[in-house]
Amino acid sequence: MNDYIQTMRALIGHETLLTIGCGAIIENIEGHLLLQKRIDNAMWGIPGGIMEMGETFEETVKREVLEETNLVLHDISLFGLYSGKSGFATYPNEDKVFSVQIIFQCKNYTGSIQLNNESKELCFFARHELPANLNPTQAPFILDWQQGVTLPILK
């Protein structure tokens, strides 16, 4: 957990905290999507995380993807901006968040995939083979990718 979230949690407890998340739709050469099965909830989602103070959106997504996958992203582009009901979440410890999501797309990356302490599994999936247990806060952009949406999305 970053310092900002720890500081805010000390002030507001479990009440809803507004966060900015950045994630990446990462495709391999076959056009398959990289998904991460998280240890904390056993659900599949894209790599990404919460912006830290002073970071740009690009710095956030690149840092989070490197931490979670060991991949270095190159030539990222905006996939979509997501907000609304799917951005609300309550964690097992009862912390509540509303997250605005800035989602990038990337087909150009270097490195070899490695698990970290947040990941149970990292795997590429074809559009027609997505796992059933998608993280509900990430399902909107994963399903937009599955349907072949190509322009930046505002939801």
Automatic annotation (TrEMBL):
Pfam family, one: NUDIX
Keywords: Hydrolase
Cofactor(s) the record lists: Mg(2+)
GO molecular function per UniProt: hydrolase activity
Domain Nudix hydrolase: 17-147
InterPro entries the UniProt entry points to: Nudix_hydrolase (IPR020476), NUDIX_hydrolase-like_dom_sf (IPR015797), NUDIX_hydrolase_CS (IPR020084), NUDIX_hydrolase_dom (IPR000086)
UniProt xrefs under PANTHER family: 8-OXO-DGTP DIPHOSPHATASE-RELATED, GDP-MANNOSE MANNOSYL HYDROLASE
Family: Belongs to the Nudix hydrolase family.
Protein name: NUDIX domain-containing protein
Source organism: Metasolibacillus meyeri
